[in-house]
Amino acid sequence: MVDVSGRSSVIISVFSTTPGIGKTVVAINLAAGLAHEGYSVCLVDLDLQFGDVLNYLQLVSPQTIAGAQRAMLNDPENFHVRNFLIDYGHQGLHFSIMPAPVYVFDAYQMDVQAVEKMISQLNYFEFVILDLNSMFSALNLAMMDMSTVVNYLGVIDFLPALKNFKIGYDTLLRFEYEESKIRIVENRADSQKLIDGRDVERLLGEKFYHRLPNDFKSVRNSINKGQPLMFAAPESKLTRSFEELVAKYTNKNISPIQTETSGGFFDRLRRWTSNLFGK
Amino acid sequence: MAYQVILIESNTEVLNEILTPLKRSPDFTVAATYTSAHSAIGQAGMFQPNLFFMDVEDDEELDLLPAFADIFPGAYILGMMSVWDANRAYRSLRGGATGCILKPFTAQDVLKSLQLFTARGAHRAGRIVSFFSAKGRAGRTTLAAILALLIAKKTGEKVALVDADLQFGDLPIFFDATPKRSIIDASQDIKLLTPLTFEPYFYPITSQVSLLSSPDKPEYAELVTPSSLVDVVRMTENLFRFVLVDLPAGFNPLAINICRLSNLVYVTTMINTGFEVRHVKKVMEMFASQATPEREIRTVFTRVNPFTEEERHKIELELGYPVDDMIPNEYKMISIANSGRLSHGLPEDTLLMRSISKMADHIIAGGK
Question: Which residues of A206-227 are buried (b: 16+ CB within 10 A; e: fewer)?
Answer without folding.
Answer: bbbbbbbbbbeebbeebbebbb
